[in-house]
Design a protein that fits this description.
The protein is built from 36 helices and 24 strands. The two termini are 55 Å apart. The strands form six sheets. The protein has a nine-stranded mixed β-sheet with strand order 7-10-11-4-1-12-13-17-18, sandwiched between helices. A six-stranded parallel β-sheet has the order 21-20-19-22-23-24, sandwiched between helices. Strands 14-16-15 form a three-stranded antiparallel β-sheet. It folds into three domains: 11-70, no CATH class; 84-94 and 129-483 and 823-829, Glycogen Phosphorylase B (Rossmann fold, 3-Layer(aba) Sandwich), CATH 3.40.50.2000; 561-812, Rossmann fold (3-Layer(aba) Sandwich), CATH 3.40.50.2000. Helix 3 (49-78) packs across helix 4 and helix 12 (342-354) packs antiparallel against helix 13 (359-369). It has 839 residues and is of the alpha/beta class. Bound molecules: alpha-D-glucopyranosyl-2-carboxylic acid amide. Alpha-D-glucopyranosyl-2-carboxylic acid amide binds next to helix 7. It comes from Artomyces pyxidatus. This is Glycosyltransferase family 35 protein.
């Protein structure tokens, strides 16, 4: 030993803090050091960044717990109406930086950590993402939690505490294909959750249901298997307020350790098996996006979660000592897609069987409590459960669904006598072998209001998904809430330099504009100010360098930060058309190849970035990834072109990676077939950070263009009403690609020629375009290429481009999730802000 040396930070600060005698040290420093010594039981000598993260997180958590406790107590005392957001997915990402921002403790922790020898930014990246979601739907839920706390609304989230979140994506070095690895995110302790071992409920599966047979509709459900739901609470701090909301996640556990009888009989394996099957319920997040597999375990998850959540709400409501008839006056429940639809049936069961509420009154309570958001019009994503499976797993609920359906169809019959086809369309039961339950129909009839997530989408929900229901209930049950994003994470945290520039330019405290995003319009006054333009461009440049450094570290390839950064990041799906993008890249590559060196010099340099996961069983999506990776390998090595065009597939897309990519984009692509992307939310994030949008006339792209002005976006492609006729044409009167788009045909042939991998491996992907072309790539390719040419042209005029970028950010006020959550609070849930007041 001998040469023991203080490794990091200020020795005296450490020693004073450890002795706990020095009163002049900041509280934060003492608290961090105290957690190092006690909670972590570590010595400062060998403390690394991860240890520093853990100690800092525990110290921040102490603050959160105080606020969280006071908020919950305050809500209990005031007993306001509450709202509950039921979502199978919450894609939270990292928490520490968000908690620091919302608590206003960023500067304090930065200083304290630096005195202890750590840089805040190195500490922050030690945190693992909480990735309990697939994509937009899960991230939307996370943004809404942030906004509900910020707006001081009494809202709780309810979800599942998956042991494994979304899989980790790896790229096979050999052939470029996607590999999946588990995401054991709880391996290190999670400081952001509070286990509530005292908050548990018993959840029943299987067994039998016996009707009373007295005409009351009541029944007794007994037997089967019981599983324990244990609550874990995640604290959700609001920005610029002490209000701290709650996200309650359920973990499943066997009711009694394991089956002692089998164990004693010497059958150890069987004894553990029962305990495994209970634990399996919350073990993994289903990695599917826009596809539904009718797996029993998934239905188990849905019921386990909704039953535990409702039992919890019921217990809280009972503490108010109000008559059960007032349940809907104190509780509003938002269904995030059809996943929590069983909650409708479960509340019916509780009311009818347990609370002995007469059927009609129970149904009135239910239909005043629930609200349903639809997130997609893709038919393959609308959930349907086989009747035999439901009967086996939840026999009582199957009876209730049949009863609800019978009474519902009677009322339809009354309004539309003799219209049997209409009854068949509206029924909760779809005929077939086997019969199945249409969860979307159940969600509609069990809810007070139904909404889509952008204007166009809400329109399609009415016209294409539920036209019969609109006729039956009238227009007013169906409405729109355009999605939003939290500007705290998606501007201030991910782009601190831009946030700083905005604050000084608006000459407003950032607390003001971060809570009222319409204030960004004030930037318009400065759009012609050359100094401001320069600063704006410098921030973008700095973010591009930050991304370049990351790419160099992870992929070992240098990126020229002078190039235009063109980004498409989202789940891989045919309707999102990453294929269109990669075929466009190949077109650009072959065009460059055909040029003389002198001609190439005039072309705008471009770096194209892709990231996104494909569902493990989605063959075509995985093949698209493989094509992107292999095209990148060819292009990035080609001495003729690599100075003008580079291509990157960044593995393992996540919230944290998005935070790095989004601020660095010059353009981003949102190019779904018109009418297929319900809203999109990353489009909002890119535009908020001054990236321009290339897109189709789809989802929230339309409303973004309305706000920022059509001359600041690059639109292309056919419109929604064109899509069906084109599909019809592709199916019944196909025109060869060569005829419709010679340019596209040439690109397809280039891929077929084998320069990105021989043996025809990409043929199945290319054939989706050559035959059927369901996502109308052939029809949109030429106008897509034109749009990209216009992007190049516009980019060449740097000043004009910077102005476009400023104008875009300035007009993004509408897309704050604060606006969206207020819309839900006022128009749907009827809940009010309940500010925590200090006593
Ligand atoms: C969906 C849609 C997106 C939408 C998101 C949030 O596909 O267009 O933005 O929900 O509403 N499943 C999704 O990601």
């Amino acid at each position: 030993r001998g040469k023991e040396k203080w490794p990091r930070g200020d020795e005296k600060t450490w020693k004073d803090a450890m002795r706990g005698v020095h009163s002049e040290l900041p509280e934060v420093t003492k608290s961090i050091v105290n957690h190092v010594q006690t909670s972590l039981a570590r010595a400062p000598y060998n403390l690394d960044d991860l240890g520093a993260y853990q100690a800092a997180a525990l110290s921040v958590r102490d603050n959160l717990i105080v606020n969280w406790n006071s908020t919950q107590l305050h809500y209990t005392r005031k007993a306001p109406k509450r709202a509950y957001y039921l979502s199978l997915e919450f894609l939270m990402g990292r928490t520490l930086s968000n908690a620091l921002l919302n608590l206003g403790l960023q500067p304090t922790y930065s200083t304290s950590l630096s005195n202890l020898g750590f840089a805040l930014e190195d500490v922050l990246v030690q945190e693992r993402d909480a990735a309990l979601g697939n994509g937009g739907l899960g991230r939307l839920a996370a943004c809404y939690l942030d906004s509900s706390a910020t707006q001081e609304l009494p809202l709780w989230g309810y979800g599942l505490r998956y042991k494994y979140g979304i899989f980790q994506q790896l790229i096979n070095e050999h052939d470029g294909s996607q590999l999946e690895a588990p995401d054991p995110w709880l391996e290190h302790q999670n400081p952001w959750e509070l286990p509530r071992l005292d908050v548990t409920y018993e959840i029943r599966f299987y067994g039998s249901a016996d009707r009373w047979g007295d005409g009351s509709g009541r029944a007794v459900w007994s037997g089967g298997q019981e599983v324990l739901a244990v609550a874990y609470d995640v604290m959700i701090p609001g920005y610029g307020t002490k209000n701290t909301n709650n996200l309650r996640l359920w973990e499943s556990k066997p009711k009694r350790g394991f089956d002692l009888q089998s164990f004693n009989a010497g059958d150890y394996e069987r004894a553990v098996e029962t305990s495994n099957s209970a634990a399996a319920i919350t073990s993994v997040l289903y990695p599917n996006d826009h596809t539904v597999f009718g797996k029993e375990l998934r239905l188990k998850q849905q019921y386990f979660w909704t039953a535990a959540s409702l039992a919890d709400m019921m217990r809280r409501f009972k503490n108010l000592e109000k008559p059960i008839s007032e349940f809907a006056e104190y509780n509003a429940i938002q269904l995030n897609d059809t996943h929590p639809t069983m909650a409708i049936v479960e509340l019916m069961r509780i009311l009818v069987d347990e609370e002995e509420v007469p059927w009609d009154q129970a149904w009135t309570i239910v239909t005043n409590t629930f609200f349903f958001t639809n997130h997609t019009v893709l038919p393959e994503a609308l959930e349907k459960w086989p009747v035999p499976l439901m009967t086996h797993l939840l026999p009582r609920h199957m009876q209730l669904i049949f009863d609800i359906n019978m009474l519902f169809l009677q009322s339809v019959e009354k309004q539309f006598p003799g219209d049997r086809e209409r009854l068949a369309r509206m029924s909760l039961i779809e005929e077939g072998f086997p019969q199945s339950i249409r969860m979307a129909n159940l969600a509609v009839i069990g809810s007070k209001k139904v909404n889509g997530v952008a204007e166009l989408h809400s329109d399609l929900v009415k016209r294409n998904l539920f036209p019969d229901f609109v006729e039956f209930y009238g227009q007013s049950k169906f409405a729109n809430v355009t999605n939003g994003i939290t500007p705290r994470r998606w501007l201030d945290q991910c782009n601190p330099a831009l946030s700083e520039l905005i604050t000084t330019t608006l000459n407003l405290p950032r607390e003001v504009w971060l809570k009222d995003l319409f204030k960004l319009e004030g930037l318009l006054k400065h759009v012609d100010d050359a100094k401001f333009q320069q600063r704006w461009a410098a921030v973008k440049r700095q973010n591009k360098e930050r991304l370049s450094n990351f790419v160099e570290k992870t992929l070992g390839i240098t990126v020229d930060a002078d190039a235009m950064f063109d980004v498409q990041v989202k789940r891989l799906h045919e309707y999102k058309r990453q294929t269109l993008n990669i075929l466009g890249v190949i077109h650009r590559y072959t065009t460059l190849k055909s040029m003389t060196p002198a001609e190439r010099k005039k072309v705008v340099k471009k770096a194209v970035f892709f990231a996104g996961k494909a569902a493990p069983g989605y063959y075509i999506a995985k093949l698209t990834i493989r094509l992107i990776v292999n095209v990148a390998r060819v292009i990035n090595e080609d001495p003729d072109t690599k100075d003008y065009l580079t291509l990157f597939f960044l593995p393992d897309y996540s919230v944290s990676l998005a935070e790095l990519l989004i601020p660095a984009s010059d353009i981003s692509q949102h190019i779904s077939t018109a009418g297929t992307e319900a809203s999109g939310t990353s489009n909002m994030k890119f535009c908020l950070n001054g990236g321009l949008l290339v897109g189709t006339v789809d989802g929230a792209n339309i409303e973004i263009a309305e706000e920022v002005g059509e001359d600041n976006v690059f639109f292309f492609g056919h419109l929604t009403p064109d899509v069906e006729p084109l599909r019809y044409q592709h199916t019944y009167h196909p025109i060869p690609v060569e005829e419709k788009s010679p340019a596209l045909a040439a690109v397809l042939n280039t891929v077929s020629s084998g320069i990105f991998g021989a043996d025809g491996i990409y043929e199945p992907l290319l054939n989706t375009v050559r035959q059927g072309d369901f996502y109308i790539l052939t029809d949109d390719f030429d106008s897509y290429i034109k749009a990209l040419e216009m992007v190049d042209e516009a980019y060449a005029d740097r000043t004009e481009w910077i102005k476009k970028s400023i104008r875009t950010s300035a007009k993004m006020g509408k897309f704050s999730s604060d606006r969206a959550i207020q819309d839900y609070a006022q128009e749907y849930w009827n809940i009010e802000s309940t500010k925590l007041v200090e006593e």
